[in-house]
Amino acid sequence: MSAESTEQHEFREYVRRWLAENAPQPPPFRLPITAIEVMHENQRDYLQAWQAKCYEAGLVGCDYPEAYGGGGHEGFQRIANQEMGRARTPFLINIVGLNMAAPTILVHGTEEQKRRFLPGALSGEEIWCQGFSEPGAGSDMANQQTLAVPRGDDWVVNGHKVWTSLGHFAKWMILIARTSKDHKYDGLTYFLCPIADHPGVTVRPLVKITGESGFNEVLFEDVVVPDSHRLDDVGKGWTVAMTTLTYERGAAESAGGSSGESEAPLDALVRLARESRRGGGKASDDPVTRDAIVQRAIASEGLRWSARRARVPALTDHPMRLPLQQKLVFSELAQRDARLGVEIAGARSTLYKLDPRAPDAGRWPLSYMNSYGHTIAAGTNEIQRNILGERVLGLPKSK
What we know:
The protein is α+β, with helices and mostly antiparallel strands.
């Protein structure tokens, strides 16, 4: 494996010291598991302040050019992400801004757009959401019906987006809209659409089975978007969206982030097994439970080495094989982790998250129910398997 440069090693040491000295105290209220479950203003304010602090310290946007608010040091962001993960610091709230909007704007944006939008996305000052899914166009992204009609130097947007994470707090949306009904793919255009307090935009929370409402639906009624907020050419929306999805699916490095988990899933499962009862003894003494945890450890170690291998071109037979499988494998592993936690906790896993007797404050059933959103987001895992089969293995397209 390639060794870090002296500069990268020094940066890693700096990040470790900074996190040790500046990790925030836990808030007096409950934080959600991930950014897409943020519901309340106190949660938003706490997490937004943390992202701003990390940005000012140089831990976010490390690889981005200085002219656009970044650190200008290629290869540093992965180091910052790794150290934030090891330190178990809170997650960065602007997940869409960092993982989707910023990298897409960096690739497709004009100089003016990059200077205008990237600093706020990196610092978390401006929260972003994603306007791809519609009631009739979930994984079939080309079936967009939200319509954008030109009017002078503006576009007038009418339509309906759904499953919009952080839409209730977002100032901006990356929006795909139909600008031609004559072409399916070439009839789509990509916009940077204002959301917060913008005339004609209505955001309605969607309450999930978990009781959380991080998801929303967003309705557009004669919403005016300046043509200066169009990203790339008219009719290039599908191409731009593919860039976004490349980053959303984890096939390229994002602008920053960490898991936000206070305890590694494997460590948490081992501790849960030691604290739970099974057949008159500890669940950790049950051979079936022990085997399930060991299998989880093996999978985790395999993924860790796959991630290292992906960074060495000479060890990869196809440049997109390992990056494209990341979203698929990690989302399903997280789902299996949560299910195993529910099984280990047994009947106690039915206790509500606010019940003081609930194991780990209800983490496991909550994680399990939320996990299905991650296996659907960025295109369902079935679609991801098709992509791997067609683009990596060269199999014929499915019908």
